[in-house]
Amino acid sequence: MTGSGRLGTEPSADVVIAIHDATRRLDRALESLLTADDPIRITVVCHGIEASTVAGQVPADRLGRVRVVEFSDGIPSPEGPFNHGLDLATAPYVMIMGSDDFLEPGALTAWLAHARATHADVVLAPLRHQAGGLLLNPLARRGRRNRLDPVRDRLFYRSAPLGLLRRSVLDERGLRFTEGARTGGDLAVSCALWAADIRIDFDRRMPAYVIGADARTRVTTTRRPMRVLLEPALEVIRSDWGGDQSRAIRGSLATKLLRINVLGSVLPRAEPDAWSDDDLAVTRDAIEVISAYAPAGLHDLTRADRALIDELCRPDADATTVLTAIERHRRAGRVARTIPRRWTRAFSRESVLRRYAIYAVARWIP
Prior knowledge:
The protein is of the alpha/beta class. It has 2 domains: about 15-210, Spore Coat Polysaccharide Biosynthesis Protein SpsA, Chain A; about 225-360, no CATH class. It is about 40% helix and about 15% strand. The protein has 13 helices and 11 strands. The protein has helices at about 25-35, 80-90, 105-120, 165-175, 185-195, 225-240, 240-245, 245-265, 275-295, 305-315, 320-330, 335-340, 350-360; strands at about 15-20, 40-45, 65-70, 95-100, 100-105, 120-125, 125-130, 135, 165, 200, 210.
């Protein structure tokens, strides 16, 4: 371990950074954190690499605020090191961060000030791409910044718990990232938080968390079998907390899982060798499980989405028919891409048409 992490006073927040490649811009992430006015402690978890390979990026005069620890589980996923760092945390609030990401000036100070003033359990960070675009996610109700509702404020579309999290909420509920997951290991913990009876605040006018785009390597971009891609969504459905939710929460969650996790994994697989028999079977089973969990989850999907799902669920579907269905989805007209099968659902909360309208307004009105 490099650096004791001792501040002379208890930190207001523990920030966990997972790093698996010594070429990552760790110095940039640290610089954006160490300017905070509050006493914070940063734990850099070296995932499968030696601490000495990144220690040089830690400013010598800040060793008291940064500790560098080693962790190895042999899994190319940040979930293990994130959990290790969270287990070491003692501050009231915790935060996770990618090693190639960074914060806008004043971000952590603003988030902590808000947390102390409101006693929020979660302060969601506004997200911005390094290229400059602000992500309108979650697409909360206009003017709604405090006590967000998981359904009315579309929280399930925020798949990563980026921002400040009250540590006691995680610990008391036993919430951690999914160990061993090669992708989507943050989905279950995020959904569990959004569905919990806690205070979640989000003000996109605050300084943002910036998603870095200049890293040379990433561990989550390799094409994977559908079984691996869809397991995180099924974990959510099978969870104890998932089974205890209201019909409204089930429907909102199911729509998101079908639209983003299932179809979002299907549509990029447009090559002839992209679909094995197992891929087809797993995809069909996942759609059936999610639809059984909340039949209403299908109602707000567009006509093009429903047509693709119907094709995927056919018992005789094969790689050729699925590829044809994907191409048909890509060429679908505007009505098919925006309107559900039932016209009465065209402006429902989860409909694409309503989301487009909110996007247009949200870009101009805070």
